[in-house]
Amino acid sequence: MTFSIRPLSDVLAAEVRGVDLREPLDDADRAALNEAFLDRHVLCFRDQELDKPAQLAATLRFGPLDVHIQRNKGDEISLVHTVSNLDADGNPKPEAAAKGNLRWHSDKSYRTVPSCATFLYAVKVPAQGGRTEFANMNRAFEAYSAERREAFRGMKVVHDWVRSCRKSGEREASPEEASVYPPVAHPLVRRHPESGREAFFIGNHASHISGMDREEGEALLEEIEAHSTAERFVWRHQWREGDLLMWDNRCLLHRAEERAREARVLHRTVTRGTSPF
Ligand SMILES: [Fe+2]
Q: Pick from 53, 199, 228, 220: which is nearest to 133 by CA?
C-alpha cells in the first residue's frame, strides 16, 4: 500500500492518507504504522468506509480485542460499541452523551489489565464542535524536575470505577460492575511496553495515592492532572465523517470537549493492553 503520514501538531497525532482499512496490511505497512503510532500516539485514518464487521477486522489487525462490559441493546455485533447522542427517535439529545467522557481519562484504567488502543470511527459528526481532546502524558511527566520525577516513580495510584462514576456525577456503578472491577493500584508513572518511555497514568478513574493520606493524595493527583493537561501538552481533533482515530491509552489522557448539540454517532473498538509497570 502507498500511504502518507503527516504530523498534525508538535505535541502528538498524525494523519494517515492512502490506507483503506478494509484491506489487509502487509508486514512492512504494519511496521510503518506502528512506528508512527508509537511516535505520535494518535493516528487519524481519513476517508474510511467501515461497517461494524470491517471495523472489527481492522482492529484485530492491530491487536487482540478488549471486550466491554456494556452491551449495545438490540445490536447484533456487541463487540463494536456505538457511542451516540441520539434518542430512541433518532434525534440529538445532548444529555444522552456519557458525562464521564467529559473528564480526562485513559480508557479502562480501572482494570488490572487496562486497554491498549481505542479505535473510534466517525459515522455522523457535527461540522463544528464535539471535538476530542488528547494530552501527552509522556511530555507532561518529562516537564517535571528530576527530583519530583524520582518521587513520582515510587508512587502507586488506586483506580476505582465506582468512585469514577460518582465523581463524574453520572450514575452509580451497577453491583455487577462493582464486583467485576474492584479498585486496583497501578504505578503513577508507567513505562510504555513498546517505546520504553515513562508517562503519567492518571485521569478520572484515578482515585487516590496508595499509602498516602487520602486528601493529600487526591490533591497531588489534581495538581498532576492540571499540569499535564495544560495547553502545551494538548491536541484537539475536529472530527470528519469517515475518520478512524486510533489512540494509545498507555501514554495519553483524552476527553470530549463538550456535549455536541447536533447528531454525533461513532463506533468504538478497543484492543487489550498489558499490566502497567
Ligand atoms: Fe474514553
A: 228
Determine the distance separating the centroid of ligand 1 and the alpha carbon of 4, expressed in angstroms.
27
Ligand 1 centroid to Cα of residue 216, in Å, is 27
Q: What's the average model confidence in pLDDT over 228-252?
A: 98
Whether residue 233 has pLDDT greater than 80: yes
**101 CA distance to ligand 1 middle (Å):** 6
Reference 80, options 56, 97, 61; nearest CA is: 56
Stated as kind and residue range, the H or E segment containing 179 is: helix 175-180
- Ion ligand 1 nearby residues (CB, 5 A): 107
Distance CA 209, CA 218 (A): 7
- Catalogue all structural domains in the chain, each as residue range(s) with its CATH number: 4-271 (3.60.130.10)
Average pLDDT, the chain: 93
Q: How far is the CA of 2 from the centre of ligand 1 (A)?
A: 31
Q: Which three cell numbers stand for residue 134?
A: 488528547
**pLDDT band for position 74 (cuts 50, 70, 90):** low
**Which has the closest alpha carbon to 242: 9, 19, 57?**
19
